[in-house]
Specification:
alpha+beta; DNA Primase, Chain A; 5 strands
Length: 94
């Protein structure tokens, strides 16, 4: 994936989940507040790997099923435009 695509995907994730916490661009790892369990505490327990196309909340991932592919995340929380853009920027497995 090219750097511009990574930047666009990060912007798309921010539009879906808000401001991010830690971000490791070389690994494609970025953290956000969980839309299910954060309740304004700013814990950034939801980790996304946009290169591997996966996410997991380290707080409620098992109990609330907040883990899986990014497609699942966009299907559940995204609007039509966000879903369409994600289909363009989604990493393709080789």
């Amino acid at each position: 994936m090219y750097m511009e695509e990574n930047d666009a995907l990060v912007e798309l994730l921010e539009s879906l989940l808000g401001d991010h916490g830690l971000h490791y661009p070389n690994r494609g790892q970025i953290s956000f507040n969980c839309p299910v369990c954060d309740d304004g505490r700013n814990k950034h327990n939801l980790e996304v790997n946009y290169i591997e196309n996966v996410f997991k909340c380290w707080s409620c991932g098992d109990s609330e099923n907040t883990h899986g592919s990014l497609t699942k995340l966009f299907d559940k929380y995204g609007n039509r435009k966000q879903k369409k853009l994600y289909s363009v920027f989604r990493p393709q497995r080789q």
